[in-house]
Design goal:
By secondary structure, this protein is an alpha+beta fold. Helices cover about 45% and strands about 20% of the residues. The strands form three sheets. The protein has a five-stranded mixed β-sheet with strand order 7-9-8-10-11, sandwiched between helices.
């Protein structure tokens, strides 16, 4: 009988915990959506800090909230472990971004790959961007160092701009690599029309928080905002793949 009572108590505790989590989920969602009805909430779960819930938004951004939804924090959560400060927020954001990027098939990208790549980077690019052109001139060096370069479209001036139209023509070309080389050399790319992922990729970049180009995503989801010389970028990319 004692064992049965203990089992029943344990089961009741588990049910109460689930109910509490469900109540917190609803309270937090209600609070956030009262401020912004279309708040892109992807998941709500307990954070590593007792009493604090982690709100994951689409695109990787993180918020923190009290169980009753009355308090919301936007910022970084650190855990001090073995004398080091670990940024838990950045880790969670990187995992979310990596998951989002990994869901995009490489057939929807413009890919420059070595014969045996060691890792890859995904670059949100605009053909009219000077630093994008500089980075592109170093793609052969990145390939030599074992880095596969995967391009996604991010027309900085928005859809309908010259950059967006050029990117669409690149993606619609029979030889995307050749068209990208031409565009990055500031040469006119023949206008080609087709169903293409430029608008969807631009929206994804905005969701992730891309504000300028090139925006470089490492294999583990870390975001490198801006140009990095090939040797330094390759070092970061290889480290992120371990």
């Amino acid at each position: 009988m004692r064992v049965i009572r203990l089992f029943a108590a344990a089961t009741l505790g588990a049910v109460s915990t689930v109910a509490l989590a469900a109540d917190a989920d609803k309270a937090i969602r209600d609070s956030l959506q009262s401020i912004q009805p279309d708040m892109p909430i992807e998941a709500i779960a307990e954070s590593p800090m007792n009493g604090v819930y982690q709100v994951q938004l689409k695109g990787g951004r993180q918020l923190y909230a009290s169980a009753d939804g009355q308090f919301v924090i936007q910022g970084y959560m650190f855990q001090f472990k073995d004398g080091q400060a670990v940024n838990l927020t950045e880790q969670a954001q990187s995992r979310s971004v990596a998951k989002l990027i990994d869901a995009v098939p490489t057939s929807d990208m413009v890919v420059f790959a070595p014969e045996k790549p060691k890792t890859h980077i995904t670059v949100f690019t605009d053909t009219d961007c000077g630093y994008c052109q500089k980075l592109h001139s170093e793609v052969p060096e990145l390939n030599r160092l074992g880095i596969e370069v995967r391009y996604m479209a991010f027309p900085r001036q928005g859809m309908g701009s010259h950059g967006a139209n050029t990117l669409a023509s690149v993606w619609c070309s029979k030889d995307r690599q050749a068209a990208m080389n031409k565009a990055k050399a500031r040469e006119e790319v023949p206008v080609v029309q087709c169903d293409n992922p430029v608008a969807a990729q631009y929206a994804m970049g905005q969701q992730i928080g891309v504000q300028g180009t090139p925006a470089i995503i490492l294999a583990d989801g870390q975001v490198i905002p801006g140009y990095q010389p090939a040797p330094q970028l390759a070092e970061l990319a290889l480290k992120a793949s371990k």
